[in-house]
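Deliverable D4.2, example record:
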Amino acid sequence: MISYSSKVLLYALISAVLFLPLDADYEDCTIELLVRRNTIYKAFLGQQLRIDCPVVFCNNPPPPVSWYKIEEKLVRLNVNNNSRIKIGWKMSNPLEGTSYLLFQNIVRNDSGIYQCESGGNTGHAINIIVS
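Output generated by the structure prediction step:
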């Protein structure tokens, strides 16, 4: 036979399981892209230019970030090791970092509107003016 104190403990444990929320159910894990509105970068031909997309996230590792140039439509930037445009990442703390787009030897065609995207969220437009 089960003692009275064992029954109380059993009921308490069952109640705790039924009524206490699980963290996984309540955790709203969203990725925030903290690009300021109306961001403008100005550069001269041949300069190096870095544009930033600050990212706040809730799980490690950091989320993948894609960069786009808005022309007539959204065009995803495809960069590789030989490209003069590179994508990089810099951590600022365990759940924050900055994805950046680095233009080496910038040209007039690099002028335009750029956006970063991650986790279904898109950052505000970044305007680059090359003169």
